[in-house]
Amino acid sequence: MAPPVLAVSGLNVRFHTNDGVLTAVNDLSFELGEGECLGIVGESGSGKSQTFMAALGLLADNGEAGGSVRFRGQEILNAPRKVLDGIRGNRISMIFQDALSALTPTMRIGNQMTELLARHRRLGRNEARARAIEALEGVRIPDAAARFSSYPFELSGGMRQRAMIALATLCGPEVIIADEPTTALDVTVQSQVLRLLDGLRQRTRTSIVLITHDLAVVAGLCSRVMIMYGGRVVETGPVREIFRNPRHPYTQALLRSMPSMTTDPGTDLPAIPGQPPDLENLPPGCPFADRCEHVFERCLEQMPSLVPVGDRHSKACHLEPGP
Ligand SMILES: Nc1ncnc2c1ncn2[C@@H]1O[C@H](COP(=O)(O)OP(=O)(O)O)[C@@H](O)[C@H]1O
Ligand SMILES: [Mg+2]
């Protein structure tokens, strides 16, 4: 088997706050294969974004990361800034929910693109411009040559999201981290943007991490999914397997609360009773215990470790053989 493009091992992310130390990501390990689309699902605050902020050296000043993140075998966690500058936006790109904040508002789209190319590639002016327009055409922005001179605010939300994807893919990254890339978009634009990413993956074998709180998005695009809760992986496996045979009560609850095709897309998701855990006061046992309908004594005392329950399928739950 080919070595993974990205290998995360025992990753921890902590933040120092006025009230003490908060653990946002707890002993996280996973691998991302070439051309693979891995879904990461979990409620808000489960540690999805900070996992990748840590990996790319983008944590806030009060944050610190431990463990290991290897990119094609090279350790990049807490790597020198120069190393990370050479990787970010070039070999690993991020796409965010909010294109407006990812793009520089005072700079024409085209100039942002040619500047990125100037930083990472030796290209002449005309060549860079041609490459940028090609990238805008690649994400099906109509009249790309004209849009090259537009400012971000002059584009619609959907078009802006496409421009950000064009920027993220400009240097031909090996990995794209798409962090809730379509959450702010309406359903039609959402599926267009997702199809765009999937087409890119198939054409170029780019590996994609798709972060979302929506299992339906994962079902359409990813081959494997990792469910996070309270900074930990609670279940992971092939998407089909997780949908057919979810083994963790949290995954089961997520699936039950999944909107059907007829649900208004504006509805808040997902309605699982109770609150996400307080990361500053995590219980000694399973973080999901106080919301779990199957909770028993051991769950309150001991954190379950992630154990295999099938082919490439693992769960972190004390219930045996499983709910
Ligand atoms: N700079 C910070 N200081 C303190 N806590 C933070 C900071 N940044 C993020 N967090 C906390 O880390 C946790 C995980 O955040 P995040 O990874 O963004 O969640 P997700 O992307 O799953 O919604 C959250 O509880 C968040 O409040
Ligand atoms: Mg997030």
- Distance separating the two termini: 33 Å
Bound ligands: adenosine-5'-diphosphate, magnesium ion
Strand order of the largest sheet: 6-7-8-3-9-10-12-11
Unreliable runs, pLDDT <50, ≥5 residues? none
Largest sheet: 8 strands, mixed
CATH architecture of the largest domain: 3-Layer(aba) Sandwich
Number of strands: 12
The share of residues in extended strands comes to 15-25%
Count of helical regions: 12
Helix percentage range? 25-40%
Determine the structural class based on helices, strands and strand pairing: alpha/beta
CATH first level of the largest domain: Alpha Beta
Q: CATH homologous superfamily name of the largest domain? A: P-loop containing nucleotide triphosphate hydrolases
Descriptive overview:
The chain is of the alpha/beta class. It has 2 domains: 6-91 and 174-315, Rossmann fold, CATH 3.40.50.300; 102-170, no CATH class. It has helices at residues 48-55, 81-87, 99-102, 109-120, 125-138, 144-147, 157-169, 187-204, 215-221, 239-244, 249-256, 297-301, and strands spanning 6-17, 20-32, 37-41, 63-71, 74-75, 92-95, 175-179, 207-212, 224-229, 232-238, 307-310, 313-315. The strands form 2 sheets. Strands 6-7-8-3-9-10-12-11 form an 8-stranded mixed sheet, with helices on both faces. α4 (109-120) packs across α5, α5 (125-138) crosses α7 and α7 (157-169) runs parallel beside α8. The two termini are 33 Å apart. Bound molecules: adenosine-5'-diphosphate and magnesium ion. Residues 15, 17, 22, 24, 42, 44-50, 60, 62-63, 279 line the site of adenosine-5'-diphosphate (ADP).
